[in-house]
Design a protein that fits this description.
Arc Repressor Mutant, subunit A; nine-stranded mixed beta sheet; 479 residues; globular; four-stranded antiparallel beta sheet; 17 strands; Aspartate Aminotransferase, domain 1; 15 helices; binds pyridoxal-5'-phosphate; Aspartate Aminotransferase, domain 2; alpha/beta
Length: 479
């Protein structure tokens, strides 16, 4: 159950209104109260009503009609039952990504399968045409070989753009203290190298993104899984207990729309997290790769925005919204700047310059904000439509997250179902999924799966129906 104190007012109002739609008070096509009317009736501010209406628009429940008002758009969504919060605190574990996991990660990249597996963005929602134009401009201007003299930190114009944007989510990052990396993956790896030694213990969310497990294993680090609520993220209570009882060297978390659950640590809890770690002198490696992909009104802050001691190392990339293939990420390593910079130098000197220049131009004048608005809305609708389709075609009792951002869904299947077996059977039906097996070093989530909603379209429903049939067959004990 979600703690009602943590539900923002606009979400509560949106939920109440959606309940009214579901109860038939406002049928399909009906006009709902205007922003002014709702604000007066409910005694809440204009902006709270507006935020609630935006959320309902993103969920596909209502639509705005120019000069006319807001109308009920779709049949009301069925309520989505949330996966259980697995509270059990584990023991420190050696991370060992076995052959099976490696094979799965590669299988997920097969292109002729229904793409519910890898958490890749929808290619049609990337600004490819604009990027191609910028690349052609750079070539015409003879800029392609201008990479000598670029500092180890990377392209300065890009770092300025990153710092300017970070200001909007509460962070004061100096461009001179940023390092451009090959994706968020390299950023996280450099941070782990900077703050840990082989054998050290790192606290992670449970479940966690398997790329984090790969990084821990590569650096011979041990993992301590901290129970994470599917909606509100890493339990601070469990983390506080773990900090008292284990020699934790760093915490690595995805506070904004984690992978696989899409959970969001509220801004007040982020502040508490940063203060808790500061009291213990433990660094936080914060992965904010999904921070821009929110469906609500406002971008959630980064935990880094509460950092007073330089203990937060903020990592992100443009892989989810601009291009995964360009491999451009960045890190603001706080007081570990020198360590990160020297490890970057030792590893590969600097990040490939051309994609940095292209992304920096796109951020400067390519309409990035407009692009983000478009993809947030599209992903909000896809996530909502896919979760409704899962409710319709999966067995009764399936539980699904309802993320407020990103584009993946985390499903708890009813009954004992081995996600690895489901994975194999789904492949035979040409459907790629990500089995829960991958998201915990101790394989705690074997009866869960993660599905990517990014490429959801009406055509995907047939694939989902086939997948639902495989799930039902396996649950009934048939192979
Ligand atoms: C939480 C998280 N971190 C990092 C990555 C990988 O980022 P990049 O491609 O920028 O290395 C992903 C990709 O799915 C992710 O979900």
């Amino acid at each position: 159950m979600r703690d009602p104190r943590k539900v923002p007012l606009y979400e509560k109002f949106a939920q109440d209104l959606e309940d009214q739609v579901r109860a038939g008070t406002f049928p399909v096509g009906a006009r709902i109260p205007s922003i002014r009317e709702a604000s007066v009736q409910q005694e809440i501010s204009f902006s709270t009503v507006l935020q609630a209406y935006r959320l309902l628009e993103n969920r596909g429940v209502i639509e705005a009609r120019p000069q006319s008002g807001y109308y009920v758009k779709l049949q009301p969504r069925k309520p989505v039952p949330e996966p259980d919060f697995q509270r059990h605190q584990g023991d420190p574990a050696k991370v060992s990504i076995d052959e099976v996991s490696l094979q799965l990660i590669h299988d997920n990249l097969k292109l002729n399968y229904a793409q519910f597996g890898a958490a890749s963005p929808n290619p049609d929602l990337l600004p490819t045409v604009k990027l191609n134009r910028i690349l052609a401009e750079l070539a015409r201007d003879g800029k392609l070989s201008h990479d000598m003299g670029v500092a180890v930190q990377g392209n300065e114009a890009l770092r300025i753009q990153v710092a300017q944007r970070a200001f909007s989510y509460g962070c004061e990052l100096a461009p001179a203290e940023l390092v451009v990396t090959a994706g968020c993956t390299e950023a996280m790896n450099l941070c782990l190298q900077a703050v840990c030694q082989p054998g050290d213990l790192v606290a992670i969310e449970s479940p966690t993104y398997f790329g984090i497990l790969l990084a821990l294993e590569a650096q011979h680090l041990r993992a301590l899984e901290i129970p994470s609520h599917p909606r509100t993220g890493m339990s601070l209570e469990a983390l506080a207990f773990a900090l008292e009882n284990h020699p934790i060297k760093a915490v690595l978390a995805v506070p904004n729309f984690s992978n696989p659950t899409g959970s969001l640590i509220s801004d007040p809890d982020k502040e508490e997290l940063v203060n808790l770690l500061a009291r213990h002198g433990v660094p936080l490696i914060e992965n904010d790769i999904n921070g821009e992909l929110y469906f609500g009104e406002r971008r959630p802050r980064a935990a880094k925005s509460y950092d007073r001691d330089g203990l937060v190392l903020l990592c992100s990339s443009f892989s989810k919204d601009i291009s995964a293939g360009f491999r451009i990420g960045w890190v603001s390593p706080g007081k570990f700047y020198r360590e990160v910079q020297s490890r970057k130098w030792a590893l590969n000197m600097r990040t490939s310059i051309l994609p940095q220049m292209a992304i920096s131009r796109f951020l400067e004048n390519g309409g990035y904000d407009q692009h983000l608005r478009k993809i947030r809305r599209a992903y909000g609708e896809k996530v909502s439509a896919m979760s409704q389709a899962i409710l319709a075609h999966f067995p009764e009792g399936t539980r699904i997250t309802e993320p407020g951002g990103g584009f993946v869904l985390w499903l708890q299947l009813p009954g004992k179902l081995d996600s690895l077996l489901l994975y194999q059977e789904a492949l035979k039906a040409f459907i790629a999924i990500a089995p829960g097996y991958l998201f915990s070093p101790t394989h705690k989530f074997d009866d869960y799966i993660r599905l990517n909603a990014a490429c959801w379209s009406e055509k995907s429903e047939q694939d989902l129906i086939r997948l639902g049939m495989v799930v039902k067959r396996l649950l009934s004990g048939k192979r």
